[in-house]
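tmp note - Pyroglutamyl-peptidase I
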Amino acid sequence: KELEKLGLRDDVDLHVYEVPVEYQTVQRLIPALWKKHSPQLVVHVGVSGMATTVTLEKCGHNVGYKGLDNCRFCPGSQCCVEGGPECIDSIIDMDTVCKRVSALGLDVAVTISKDAGRYLCDFTYYTSLYQSRGRSAFVHVPPLGKPYSAEQLGKALQAIIEEMLELLEHSEDKINCQHEH
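out:
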């Protein structure tokens, strides 16, 4: 919500949605949002009670979902997409994003993870990565006040997303440049 107040640069349309902690809703909503907006990038943000840093997730996992959601439901297959790859990496270079944002001197620690936890965050991330062929990102944040304020988290997310967009735009410039020759 703080990021919605802060916004992003003028040439970016920001759409903010709250996604319920429900497997079946995620399976319907994420593809519908991709279809509706055809975004350049989707960045999911989830709160982790275990997080003490802002954590950039590198990949989403397809199997291992055993925890019940807010509707007391769990997929019988314990997976996101039957027959899908075990793991899908984001096309965003999270190591570079982490280094660049850390160098900005914000008073927020940013780290990297390869495991978003096999619950709704990971399930949402995988679903979005599958839908977008990797054009998604997931950021875990600690609960408000533990240790960061809403304003600190909002500014960190703003910087992270702008770095992600910058990386995405430069990689596409290289791709377009190679096609012209």
